[in-house]
Amino acid sequence: MNQNRKLAQLLFKDNFMFGAVMVHEEICRDFLELAVGFPIEKVEISKEKSMIYHPEYRGIRLDIIARDENRTHYNVEMQVAKKSHLGKRARYYHSQMDMELLLTGEDYRELPAAYVIFICDFDPFGQKKYGYTFQNICTETGLSIADGSTTIFLSTCGNNTAEVPEKLVKFLEFVRAGEADSTRDYQDSFIRKIQKSMEDIRSSREMEEKFMLLEELLKDERAEGRVEGRAEGKALGKAESILLLLQDSGMIPDELRSKILEEQDTDILSKYLKLAARAESVAEFMKEMDKI
Predict the structure, then answer these.
(1) NCBIfam families attached here (predicted)?
(2) What are the boundaries of each domain within the chain?
(3) Which of 59, 155, 202, 292 has the fewest CB within 10 Å, making it most exposed?
């Protein structure tokens, strides 16, 4: 995201706007029905996962984690720039969902179906399809292993209009749209819901403050890019981001502050950063960090 952009200029595909819109369960449900192709009665969006956390505002989402009435779980992420290893990213997301379910006492037999869905503003596989759906299939026989895991890549660059629902094509056209086309009438009730939600978000002082917070948190990441190769600078940037998140959750003990600032292992600091984004309090963060 361009650091000079304002909330009023954000498009639906910008991470902040995408998360702020999709957190609405009705919009999320309508999208999931489009993506997976079957009706969903209701969707419950997780309030404690995959977000930049701020106690007063209840968090800023960067992706969407949800489940439906059949306990099917979904992880949805917007991808604007083409990145390598999307398949491995999907594998990681599936493993995270499964591990969390098993940690709550689920037996393997009770693991629900799980979907990882990427909305890509590019063609991830170069086949000019609006959608690519992957499941685990036996190479020799074509049989499905029926493990319940599905990965879907939606692309704004497809041209197989006759093979997919018209509503999905319109949605992906809207995702691809620039600023001028983002407000036009697509003659689609779902897109109108998204456009109305975006108008409300752009006019909200609370959302403006959330956006400013996210920009502040991302500042260190941009600084890391400017000092690429300097491990010490990267570690300090991550440490300061952790402290920025924690300071709104309570008083940070000097011992904890020193421990975070003195840590030079960026992998450990990345784990601390994720933990700080989820922790409800400094005490909870300190308890969980001892397990890392």
Answers:
(1) T_den_put_tspse
(2) 7-204, 227-289
(3) 292
Side-chain half-sphere CA neighbours of 201 within 13 A: 25
For 99-255, strand residue ranges (E) read: 114-120, 131-134, 149-155
Extract the tokens encoding 67: 């489940």
Phi, psi of 99 (to 5 degrees): -65, -40
10 Å CB burial of residue 156 (0-12, 13-18, 19+) is buried
Looking at the DSSP bridge assignments, the partners of residue 118 are: 77, 153
Which residues on neighbouring strands pair with residue 116, listed in sequence order?
75, 151
- Mind listing the pLDDT tens digit for each residue in 202-224? 999 988 887 887 777 666 555 54
Work out whether strand 114-120 and strand 73-79 pair parallel, antiparallel, or are unpaired.
Answer: parallel
- Tokens 């018209």, located at residue: 166
Per DSSP, 76 falls in state E
Which secondary-structure segment (H or E) carries 52? strand 51-52
Yes or no: say if 33 and 40 are a contact pair by the CB < 8 Å rule: yes
74 burial via Cβ count (<10 Å: 0-12, 13-18, 19+)? buried
- According to DSSP, the residues that pair with 50 across neighbouring strands are none
User: Is the Cβ–Cβ distance between 113 and 73 less than 8 Å?
Assistant: yes
pTM of this structure: 0.71
Pick from 60, 7, 17: nearest CA to 195: 17
Q: What is the pLDDT of residues 172-213, one digit of tens each?
A: 999 999 999 999 999 999 999 999 999 999 999 988 887 887
Residue 25 structure tokens = 């369960």
Largest separation between any pair of C-alpha atoms in the chain: 62
